[in-house]
Design goal:
Oligomer: single chain
Number of strands: 20
Shape: elongated
Structural class: alpha/beta
Number of helices: 12
Bound molecules: pyridoxal-5'-phosphate
Helix content: 25-40%
């Protein structure tokens, strides 16, 4: 179901015309649909209802506190990778027994914080990390529940910069090292090994790599004879950014996990990010200039790569649509660019676009995941506002950073 869509020729966020919002709030700004967020969370939950998973929303994909509070109300836990994310999850009211702490480079300070807050699992990524967690737990006289992260050497068939489960990636332990650590962990008396976790990458559009992962996890359970209380299958489920992408078959994935659960009785954890928030938001931006050089039109927006980094970082595709669609078209090569002094500050190249003029607004679509969280102050530009729409109501959920704040800090 789509809550951000064209109605006649007018882009609407739920029941509000985006053009009206663009006149009310200073552009550029992120604009979310609450109904879309709920729709995504409940569809995920529903697809897996037979196995009653714990859904730990991956905060790295979007850490806006208002959205986290909404997700908490829906029953979500959190997957965090830093002290900041952990404290943000707690601040949003998420129960610490629904928080998993992942990440390849947790510092001593972060480990202490996670132990003191008694999170559900700290997912360890190396033997040295296990030794450090054990030492800190011992000092604090605590037994810490931990998971161990597998690097299965399975290709997720996604962009190389968002692949995390290959043998050359820094994440997790390979099969042999993981089996060895499972044995050695018995000597680390302040650790309780409750979980096995794996996350092979993001924007995965086929169920096949997940099937391979489940086969390997099953093999590890047989080999180690450990009844892991939790199997954490990470996130990674892809969404459709363009009409060309294959839609991920969630029901097929659910069937595979159900089959796995019948054999290995355990609590499944998922850490979805993109699937939950990806299509909940558009970035609304104003056309500042249209300039033509010899062979193309540059449409210069007031949003730049500091506001949305994904196209520059991952060559990611985000469709751009005018807030008010004109049936006449600009014909030729068109490039949507930002104001930043980098040639990579480019959102999209395409041929033909509905006629548009300076001062008009456009929406860069599907920016809810890895949008705001990757934003920076590059070129000394302030972080922008975030707006949440619910039905015909809208509210500011993050204030635009003031120039004063930017300049003085
Ligand atoms: N879990 C871990 C450990 C991750 O590194 C990530 C993202 O890279 C996620 C979950 C969320 O992935 P996605 O947004 O693709 O669902």
């Amino acid at each position: 179901m789509n809550f951000i869509r064209l109605r006649k020729n007018d882009l609407c966020i739920e029941k509000i015309s985006a053009n009206i919002l663009a006149k009310k709030y200073e552009t550029p700004f992120y604009c979310y649909s609450l109904s879309q967020l709920k729709n995504n969370f409940y569809s995920f939950n529903n697809a897996f209802r037979a196995i009653k998973p714990l859904i730990c929303f991956s905060i790295k994909s979007n850490s806006n506190i208002a959205l986290l509070k909404e997700l908490k109300k829906m029953g979500s836990g959190a997957d965090v990778v830093s002290a900041g994310e952990l404290l943000r999850a707690i601040k949003a009211g998420i129960n610490v027994k629904k928080i998993v702490f992942s990440g390849v480079g947790k510092t001593e300070k972060e480990i202490k914080l996670a132990i003191k807050n008694r999170v559900l699992l700290i997912n360890m990524e190396s033997e040295n990390e296990a030794i450090l967690i054990n030492k800190i737990s011992n000092k604090l006289s605590k037994i810490t529940t931990v998971g161990i992260r597998l690097n299965p050497n399975i290709s997720p068939k996604t962009h190389k910069k968002i692949s995390t489960g290959g043998k050359n990636d820094k994440f997790g332990l390979n099969y042999n090292d993981l089996i060895n650590l499972c044995r050695k962990i018995k000597n680390l008396k302040n650790l309780k090994l409750d979980g096995l976790s794996v996350h092979i990458g993001s924007q995965i559009t086929s169920v096949k790599p997940f099937k391979q992962v489940l086969t390997m996890v099953d093999k590890i359970i047989t080999k180690t004879k450990i009844d892991f209380k939790y199997i954490d299958l990470g996130g990674g489920i892809g969404i459709s950014y363009s009409n060309k992408e294959k839609k991920f078959d969630l029901s097929q994935y659910a069937k595979l996990v159900s089959k796995f659960i019948k054999k290995n009785q355990t609590q499944i954890i998922f850490e979805p990010g993109r699937f939950i928030v990806g299509n909940t938001s558009v970035l609304i931006s104003k056309v500042i200039y249209i300039k033509k050089n010899s062979n193309k039109y540059f449409i210069v927006l007031d949003a730049g790569m500091n506001n949305l980094m994904r196209p520059a970082l991952y060559e990611a595709y985000h469709k751009i649509i005018p807030l008010k669609k004109n049936n006449n078209r600009i014909k030729g090569n068109i490039e949507f660019v930002g104001p930043i002094c980098e040639s990579s500050d480019k959102f999209l190249s395409q041929r033909n676009f509905p006629k548009i003029k300076e001062g008009d607004y456009v929406a860069i679509t599907d920016v809810g995941a890895y949008g705001t969280v990757l934003a920076s102050n590059y070129n000394m530009r302030p972080k922008i506002a975030e707006i949440l729409v619910s039905g015909s109501k809208h509210k500011l959920i993050k204030k635009r950073q003031s120039l004063e704040n930017l300049v003085n800090n």
